[in-house]
Write a structure and sequence with these properties.
GO terms for molecular function: NAD binding; NADP binding; oxidoreductase activity, acting on the CH-OH group of donors, NAD or NADP as acceptor. The protein has about 290 residues and is of the alpha/beta class. The chain is built from 14 helices and nine strands. The chain folds into two domains: about 160 residues, NAD(P)-binding Rossmann-like Domain (Rossmann fold, 3-Layer(aba) Sandwich), CATH 3.40.50; about 130 residues, N-(1-d-carboxylethyl)-l-norvaline Dehydrogenase, domain 2.
Length: about 290
């Protein structure tokens, strides 16, 4: 199954290398020469956008829906260049409304579509242990299952085109909320003299546990590593997309609006380029400073 990975950042680059290691014929494509060279130095065949080869699968790993739209629509985009019957997989975290519109164009051009937003970060991409939320036709998923299996440990088909992106935004909203809530809970315990690790052990034995308390805190926050590979800027972007989706659906204002506001104006000093776990780390750091003074 000949594949082209478009977007050779931490996620796309690692996915391309994982597919190559699994025996797929893979070409990596990126607008930046430095990104192409980095992957070429690791043995991957690369191509500039104007050299895009014909393939059975085009896997997109891009920052925003606008980038996805450009790759698909802007001449010479995939609508023109991709062979009939090939599959476009959008592994970005994209705007569901845009995804559904693009899916109609892709299918209308004689191609197939899947949205497949990811969890697991760069490490999961490098080890083939990603989680995938799949939106599209079951028959299309079956066609590309060998590629999906090479990249992921878990795949969940959640509905038609755009559904994967809807569920991904819902997931990231919950993760963003849990980082604040768990950060405040651990900070409260620290101010009361309870060690953060002990507090987390208690939380993880009860109903308050989450992936944030079980994974993020020990892996990136208590360790002060803050190198998950997912930035604060990307989480802010995803939260804005979730807010916009909720507004388009006519949902009444709720906790989501407060979480979006907190991540944008309540997280002063945390730059977009910093690790997204910093928001909880800052809460804990403030509690430690308070108890030390």
């Amino acid at each position: 199954m000949k594949s082209v990975v478009i977007g050779l950042g931490q996620m796309g680059g690692n996915m391309a290398l994982t597919l190559k290691q699994a025996g797929f014929e893979v070409t990596g494509c990126d607008v930046f020469e430095a990104a192409r060279q980095r992957l070429a130095d690791q043995g991957l065949e690369v191509a500039a956008p104007d050299e895009l080869p014909a393939a059975e699968v085009y896997l997109l790993s891009l920052p925003t829906s606008d980038h996805v739209r450009e790759v698909i629509e802007t001449a010479p985009g995939l609508l023109i260049r991709a062979p009939k019957g090939s599959v476009v997989i959008d592994a970005s975290t994209s705007d569901p409304t845009v995804s559904r519109a693009l899916a109609q164009q892709v299918i209308g051009a004689g191609l197939a579509w899947l949205d497949a937003p990811l969890s697991g970060g760069p490490k999961g991409a490098a080890t083939g242990k990603l989680g995938m939320l799949l939106g599209g036709e079951a028959a299309t998923i079956e066609r590309v299952m060998p590629l999906l299996e090479a990249l992921s440990a878990k795949r969940t088909h959640v509905g038609g085109a755009g559904s994967g992106h809807v569920v991904k935004l819902a997931n990231n909203y919950l993760c963003a909320t849990n980082l604040i809530a768990t950060g405040e809970a651990v900070a409260m315990a620290a101010r009361a003299g309870v060690e953060p690790a002990a507090c987390l052990a208690g939380l993880n034995s009860g109903s308050g546990r989450s992936a944030v308390s079980e994974v993020n805190f020990p892996e990136w926050i208590l360790s002060d590593r803050f190198d998950s590979g997912f930035t604060t800027g990307l989480m802010r972007k995803d939260l804005r997309l979730a807010r916009d989706a909720a507004e388009q659906l006519g949902m009444p204002p709720g906790l989501l609006a407060a979480v979006v506001e907190r991540w944008h104006s309540g997280a002063e000093g945390i730059a977009d380029g910093e690790d997204f776990n910093r928001i909880a780390g800052e809460l804990l750091a403030a509690a430690r400073e308070e108890t030390a003074s």
